[in-house]
Give the backbone structure.
Amino acid sequence: MHKAGFVNIIGLPNVGKSTLLNALVQQRLSIISPKAQTTRHRILGMVNEDDYQIVFSDTPGFINQPAYKLQKNMNDFVLGSFEDADVLMFVTDKFQSLEDQAHLIKLVNESKTPCFVVLNKIDLYQKTEQEALVAQWKQTIPRCEVIPLSAASGINTKKVVKKIVELLPESPAYYDKEHLTDRNLRFIVSEIVREKIFLNYTHEIPYSAQVEVETFKEEEKIDRIRCIIYVERESQKAIIIGNKGASLKKTGTEARLEIEAFTGKKVFLELFVKVKDKWRNDESTLKKFGYS
Ligand SMILES: Nc1nc2c(ncn2[C@@H]2O[C@H](COP(=O)(O)OP(=O)(O)OP(=O)(O)O)[C@@H](O)[C@H]2O)c(=O)[nH]1
Ligand SMILES: [Mg+2]
């Protein structure tokens, strides 16, 4: 018998959904940062074995009060992932209030899809604190099993895979078993650059930035990649570039090293910065950037 299915990871921003996806797939597919709203797309990551295929789906963190069309579209990705899941993983941690999670809790309670509540970041909890949170979640979402784990340190992640396989329906694989993700290298490159922007800049800068791969030339010994970083204002462009280009250089070096680690090949990376006024509220630009 062969099993396969879609396991959709949902939760508020910053609870560790992308860290969990990467831990489960054992690849750095989805970008991670200490800032909320890092992930903006649904990103699939597959776990392939002879007798099963789990198609995990990382999603953006749900935003209770979206201020931009971009955020509204990100929420639509989350809501869509309730529709096509065989199993839901609702990820939470001790830093989120029940109030902020009320809408998601309601959706999970109303859904008939099998579900786990993943209590993440247990490396940061006292034993009694963890026990109290497990009890609280059993009461809040009675229909789901609560699994305490640490996506960052890998505690209990293997156990989750076993439990998921038990719930998967009998089905042939959905994707070629050679594949680990639905995303191409261009997308992964643009996300790596975006992650370095999230790590290197503060305030509105990471949220105003979008990265597009303009050209990607594969040569025998080196990949030559040219990316455009779009921001919303000239002042943001100046901040991204930094004094004598130092900030952009740092971001570019960090991104290049990580792209090289991912592809196992040398990379020549060029970053250019352009201004695209109010792109986060412009439907046609959002569509062009893949956010609708
Ligand atoms: N201590 C600890 N930190 C964790 C754990 N899992 C994730 N983190 C950290 O939590 C922060 C957010 O992680 P992400 O994986 O980006 O969270 P996310 O839910 O995908 O966030 P969004 O994409 O913004 O929705 C990062 O700084 C991670 O390193 C964990 O198990 N323990
Ligand atoms: Mg994420």
Remarks:
- Residues 52 and 257 are 34 Å apart (CA to CA).
